[in-house]
């Protein structure tokens, strides 16, 4: 039977209930929380805590806190050592033989650079110059990133190359289909639609959808890659042209009488009767404008985002059935029966330019994707390529046996011409070079006369509408191999298309900004700005942007003493003189006038004179100079009608034979410029005829002839 241990033999006595709760026994690796007794193990040295900043509460309050004693052994942390990234090694222990980012070729960077570094920065203020330098640095960094991301564009443009001495124009479509892969071979097809032809066709901006309309009323739209039909209707009326709008969900059809808008289900949404007898359609995607050319000779711009006609321009050239757009600047090109091509913008009622292209009427025209070259064909059986970079001169000419009735450019600069039932394609050295008209690149014969041509975006495919239906040809190297997924994504979903449409509407370019040179929009029209400012000064009689003289504000506590006011004025004057330091080397006369006074056309009437410097001291009739205190009192009693910085005077007059020397009050006088002495500011000078002046002038400051001011 066990007995209870006696007190005093290693058993601690029981504690009172009022005592605090017994703490856990301390281990040897833990910090010491209570003073050690004699013979106990001291443990590790205790760290002293800074208790001076800790607020001490009342003794009666009991706050439960977590114990600061950890239950695991604490290991002292080592300070973090920053390693040199160049000295880091891989998992295998080997160093990177090519540290840093991969170098980018200079030629690739130049392709994406949009700033001409050959032009020096203008001599402007330091702040403006620093901003221009920062913009240049950001543009250079953006160009390098764009050039580096080009590595992700793995697709390369195709090409057709014959054997030694082989003419590629003799290679037929059957040979190309047999040589390419199955997916590319499926893009070549023929639609036999002789019952409703001839056909006009149009591809969407993404290159995924195809719409075509026949002369006998047949209208259809389909996904030509998967051959899935979207809609097919018969409008029971002649269809002259068809165009996709900003997306594949809307179609514009130029019918025999009016312009109609359909959706991708074939439902008629709008009938625009103000656009009647339309022959050709063009859609400007960045401006949301639908341009129509009619038999009556009118060029009409319709804003499809709001449904309003922006402009209706009379070309005064008869029937309009030849029209094309410049993708670079959104200028519409019209071909006329007198052999000229006119360039139009909705902001101008007259053509921007007229180019004499042929001795006969113009049958067809097309502009390449860069807006550099224009191809035209006329009744004189000639095919010409013009340079649109300001010269408008023909670069090359070729005489065709039957003449070209239809022309089109591809994304990479290939030119196709439809001549009867034959299609000829010419290629150049690259995207930025004009096509060579010496030898055709490809030739194909169709089952009927050509009625419409267009290259498919981002696909090496040429769509041809003819009297027998629709033909899709394979043309290697015609399109851009890589597309911008944020701008024209052929694989986008319905939700992505809706989001893109909202962003495109927010970024819509106003129709007033269409011009020949879009880069001129970023420049400042200095001549118009100066003319507008000059007219404003003439209308008001003074310069509203002129800097008012500095008047120090009154301060309290003895800080408005005369010495402090003079000190502040002198500081402002020194800053103005520092700005005008470049006028010191002009060598103009610096004589001090002997008399300064106001000469109104009637005495005893309040007038105002600009006071811009301490050296301009107005004097009364008796010759006594007015003090600053009297000026302030007069200003408070009778405010100036011309705003702050002008002092009203009543008892001043001029002396005979004096001259005028301040141009702010002389907007209409025949004057010459001079430098006013003591202020280093430009003024104007005109002869003072007599004691009186014109009534429209507010006042003149006179200077005597004998002062030597005019040299």
UniProtKB/TrEMBL annotation:
InterPro entries: BING4_C_dom, WD40/YVTN_repeat-like_dom_sf, WD40_repeat_dom_sf, WD40_rpt, WDR46/Utp7. GO terms for biological process: maturation of SSU-rRNA from tricistronic rRNA transcript (SSU-rRNA, 5.8S rRNA, LSU-rRNA). SMART domains: BING4CT, WD40. Residues 440-518 form the BING4 C-terminal domain. Keywords: Nucleus, Phosphoprotein, Repeat, WD repeat. Residues 622-632 have a biased composition (Low complexity). WD repeats lie at residues 355-389. GO terms for cellular component: 90S preribosome; small-subunit processome. SUPFAM superfamilies: WD40 repeat-like (SSF50978). Residues 62-77 have a biased composition (Basic residues). It comes from the Eukaryota. The keyword tRNA-binding does not apply. It is found in: Nucleus, Nucleolus. Part of the small subunit (SSU) processome, composed of more than 70 proteins and the RNA chaperone small nucleolar RNA (snoRNA) U3. Interacts with DDX21, NCL, NOP2 and EBNA1BP2. Scaffold component of the nucleolar structure. Required for localization of DDX21 and NCL to the granular compartment of the nucleolus. Part of the small subunit (SSU) processome, first precursor of the small eukaryotic ribosomal subunit. During the assembly of the SSU processome in the nucleolus, many ribosome biogenesis factors, an RNA chaperone and ribosomal proteins associate with the nascent pre-rRNA and work in concert to generate RNA folding, modifications, rearrangements and cleavage as well as targeted degradation of pre-ribosomal RNA by the RNA exosome. PANTHER family: WD REPEAT-CONTAINING PROTEIN 46 (PTHR14085:SF3), WD-REPEAT PROTEIN BING4 (PTHR14085). This is WD repeat-containing protein 46. It comes from Sapajus apella (Brown-capped capuchin). The gene is WDR46.
């Amino acid at each position: 039977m066990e007995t209870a241990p006696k007190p005093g033999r290693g058993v601690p006595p029981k504690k009172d209930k009022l005592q605090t709760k017994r703490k856990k026994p301390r281990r040897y690796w833990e910090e010491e929380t209570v003073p050690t007794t004699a013979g106990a193990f001291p443990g590790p040295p205790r760290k002293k805590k800074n208790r001076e900043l800790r607020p001490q509460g009342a003794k009666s309050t009991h706050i439960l806190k977590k114990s600061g004693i950890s239950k695991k052994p604490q290991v002292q942390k080592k300070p973090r050592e920053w390693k040199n990234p160049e000295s880091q090694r891989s998992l295998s222990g080997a160093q990177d033989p090519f540290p840093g980012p991969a170098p980018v070729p200079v030629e690739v960077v130049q392709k994406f650079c949009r700033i001409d570094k050959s032009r020096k920065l203008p001599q402007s203020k330091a702040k403006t110059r620093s901003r221009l330098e920062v913009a240049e640095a950001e543009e250079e960094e953006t160009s390098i990133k764009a050039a580096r991301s080009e590595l992700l564009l793995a697709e390369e443009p195709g090409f057709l190359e014959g054997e030694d001495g082989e003419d590629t124009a003799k290679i037929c479509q059957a040979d190309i289909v047999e040589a390419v892969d199955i997916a590319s071979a499926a893009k070549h097809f023929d639609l036999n639609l002789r019952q409703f032809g001839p056909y006009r066709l149009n591809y969407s901006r993404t290159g995924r959808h195809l719409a075509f309309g026949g002369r006998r009323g047949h209208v259809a739209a389909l996904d030509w890659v998967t051959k899935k039909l979207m809609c097919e209707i018969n409008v029971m009326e002649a269809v002259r042209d068809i165009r996709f709008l900003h997306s594949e969900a809307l179609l514009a059809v130029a019918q025999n009488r009016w312009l109609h808008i359909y959706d991708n289900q074939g439902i008629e949404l709008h009938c625009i009767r103000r656009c009647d007898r339309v022959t050709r359609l063009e859609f400007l995607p960045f401006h949301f404008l639908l341009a129509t050319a009619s038999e009556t000779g009118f060029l009409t711009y319709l804003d499809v985002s709001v449904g309003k006609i922006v402009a209706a321009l009379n070309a005064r050239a008869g029937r309009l059935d030849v029209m094309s757009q410049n993708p670079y600047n959104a200028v519409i090109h019209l071909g006329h029966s007198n052999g000229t091509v006119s360039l139009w913008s909705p902001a101008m009622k007259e053509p921007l330019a007229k180019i004499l292209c042929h001795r006969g009427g113009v049958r067809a025209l097309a502009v390449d994707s860069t807006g550099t070259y224009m191809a035209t064909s006329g009744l004189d059986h000639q095919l010409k390529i013009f340079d649109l970079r300001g010269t408008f001169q023909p670069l090359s000419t070729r005489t065709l046996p039957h003449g070209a009735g239809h022309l089109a450019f591809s994304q990479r600069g290939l030119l196709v011409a439809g001549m009867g039932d034959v299609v000829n394609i010419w290629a150049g050295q690259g995207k930025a070079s004009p096509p060579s008209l010496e030898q055709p690149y490809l030739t194909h014969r169709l089952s009927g006369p050509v009625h419409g041509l267009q290259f498919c975006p981002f696909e090496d495919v040429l769509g041809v509408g003819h009297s027998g239906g629709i033909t899709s040809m394979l043309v290697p190297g015609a399109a851009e191999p890589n597309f911008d997924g944020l701008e024209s994504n052929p694989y986008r979903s319905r939700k992505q298309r809706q989001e893109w449409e909202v962003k495109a509407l927010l970024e819509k370019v106003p129709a007033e900004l269409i011009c020949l040179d879009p880069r001129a929009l970023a420049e400042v029209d200095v001549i118009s700005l100066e003319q507008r400012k000059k007219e404003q000064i003439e209308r008001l009689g003074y310069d509203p942007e002129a800097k008012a003289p500095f008047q120090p504000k009154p301060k309290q506590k003895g800080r408005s003493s005369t010495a402090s006011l003079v000190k502040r004025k002198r500081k402002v004057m020194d800053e103005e003189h520092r700005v005008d330091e470049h006028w010191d080397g002009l060598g103009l006369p610096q004589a001090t006038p002997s008399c300064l006074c106001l000469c109104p056309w009637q005495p005893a009437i309040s007038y105002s004179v600009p006071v811009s410097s301490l050296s301009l001291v107005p004097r009364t009739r008796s010759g006594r100079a007015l003090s600053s205190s009297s000026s302030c009192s007069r200003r408070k009693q009778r405010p100036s009608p011309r705003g702050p910085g002008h002092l009203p005077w009543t008892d001043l007059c001029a002396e005979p034979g004096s001259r005028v020397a301040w141009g702010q009050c002389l907007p209409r006088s025949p004057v010459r410029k001079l430098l006013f002495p003591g202020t280093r500011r430009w003024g104007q000078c005109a002869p003072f005829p007599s004691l009186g002046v014109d009534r429209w002038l507010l006042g003149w400051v006179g200077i005597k002839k004998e002062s030597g001011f005019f040299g």
